[in-house]
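Tokens for chain A. Residues wanted.
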């Protein structure tokens, strides 16, 4: 794919996984805003972990042609290969920008990195600037990329003289920019060219941030199992302790029904003429789900499948709403997929340290409810692995012990969790340096006189460095 247009051009590179066909809401929303508000030719490239960087650079060169290349990076997923790619492009004189979740802290670097050489030093040496928050904040830079006025505007993070980094607080979210997404902007690397990707599933934003992150909570987080003599560390936590998005966004509220319906209207259609399956981005979607399904029907929006990601306790609290939604969905031939219920663990000690705000009993109540509703709505409700369900189960963690492992194995056996709940492979605990557990790790380093390896922006809690 090559373009000869004289319009200024930008490509947004974003982490992509092997589940081909899914859209990238944040980057594609940004591309929509940049094209509509600034007139730039803006596309999104989903980058797999095994994509060849040399082939990708060749493809980018072909796509830009004679136009001045501007490459933004978003949703990096802590990938060192994307960090290296940004450095290579920056050294070649290509303008590189950083955006998406945690852009400011990843640009700036981990707390204390100037005093502790092993900590993540940030990405300020490979990006011209970072943008934290809503994409429309970039418009002043797009209108005059070589000017200076943008440096006073909300959301920008950049280097000043002598290595000083300045961050201007971001602006609030504005619904008028969230009503429409162009889903035809996603490209994939094919050989040494960029080719359009077919979108078979997408996302609809209904809620910004997470209500669990609305109020900070003081939590006593245990030291790792192997560190004897260290007391629990009391610290303020927003949301789940491992969640970097909660720390980044907090909770900014729910969008209006009109905005949500407008987003749904802009979704592509599948082969049967219905809207493609979409994830409804809302940590507590059940109370409003029946009315949303009815509103879609009234507006002539034929849905195929709605995917939900939610907490186990909120699933149980929303049982009546979910049953009403399943009745409506059955009558409209729409499937409801519980795509990911965030169980995370079936041990109370680990759940406490993750600050899930629930216990194993709550998780098991959700399991029983899912199974019961599946028997009542076998065709309408999905949650099984073969139906696309992939539920949260974090293991290993720093707090694993013989006792926690025994608890989890016993619970899994008694409730037959391997049959329908536990995923084929668990997810190791990932600690982003700016998450609450990142602060916990740094306090451990100071308290216990240890140092953890850093893998890009991730704290490798399982790998200690030798004493300095």
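Reply:
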């Amino acid at each position: 794919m090559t373009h000869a247009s004289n319009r200024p051009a930008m490509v947004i590179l974003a982490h992509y996984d092997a589940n081909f066909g899914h859209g990238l809401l944040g980057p594609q929303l940004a591309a929509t805003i940049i094209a509509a508000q600034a007139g730039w030719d803006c596309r999104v490239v989903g980058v797999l972990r095994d994509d060849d960087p040399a082939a990708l650079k060749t493809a980018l060169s072909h796509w830009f042609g004679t136009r001045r290349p501007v490459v933004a990076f978003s949703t990096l997923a802590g990938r060192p290969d994307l960090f290296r790619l940004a450095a290579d492009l920056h050294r070649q004189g290509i303008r590189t920008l950083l955006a998406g979740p945690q852009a400011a802290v990843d640009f700036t670097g981990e707390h204390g990195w100037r005093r502790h050489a092993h900590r993540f030093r940030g990405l300020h040496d490979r990006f011209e600037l970072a943008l934290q928050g809503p994409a429309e904040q970039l418009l002043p830079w797009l209108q005059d990329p070589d000017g200076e006025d943008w440096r006073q505007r909300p959301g920008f993070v950049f280097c000043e003289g002598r290595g000083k980094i300045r961050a201007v607080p971001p602006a609030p979210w504005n619904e008028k920019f969230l009503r429409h997404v162009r889903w035809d902007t996603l490209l994939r690397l094919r050989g040494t060219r960029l080719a359009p990707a077919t979108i078979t599933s997408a996302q609809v934003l209904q809620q910004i941030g997470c209500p669990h992150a609305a109020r900070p909570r003081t939590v006593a987080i245990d030291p790792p199992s192997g560190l004897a003599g260290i007391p629990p560390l009391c610290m303020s936590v927003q949301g789940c302790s491992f969640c970097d998005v909660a720390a980044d966004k907090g909770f900014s509220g729910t969008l209006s029904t009109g905005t949500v319906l407008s987003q749904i209207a802009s979704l592509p259609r599948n082969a049967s003429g219905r809207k493609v399956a979409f994830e409804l981005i809302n940590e507590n979607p059940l109370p409003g789900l029946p009315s949303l399904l009815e509103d879609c029907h009234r507006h002539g929006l034929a849905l195929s499948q709605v995917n939900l990601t939610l907490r186990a306790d909120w699933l149980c609290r929303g049982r009546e709403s979910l049953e009403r939604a399943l009745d409506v969905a059955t009558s409209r031939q729409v499937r409801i997929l519980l795509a990911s219920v965030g169980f995370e663990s079936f041990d109370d000690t680990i759940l406490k340290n993750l600050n899930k705000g629930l216990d194993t009993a709550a998780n098991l109540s959700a399991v029983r409810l899912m199974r019961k509703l599946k028997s009542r709505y076998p065709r309408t409700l999905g949650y099984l692995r073969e139906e696309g369900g992939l539920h949260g189960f974090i293991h290993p963690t720093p707090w694993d012990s013989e006792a926690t492992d025994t608890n989890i194995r016993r619970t899994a056996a008694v409730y037959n969790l391997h049959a329908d709940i536990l995923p084929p492979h668990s997810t190791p605990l990932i600690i982003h340096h700016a998450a609450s557990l990142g602060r916990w790790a740094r306090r451990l380093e100071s308290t216990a006189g240890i140092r953890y390896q850093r893998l890009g922006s991730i704290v490798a809690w399982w790998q200690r460095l030798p004493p300095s």
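The CA atoms of residues 154 and 170 lie 5 Å apart. The chain is about 30% helix and 20% strand.
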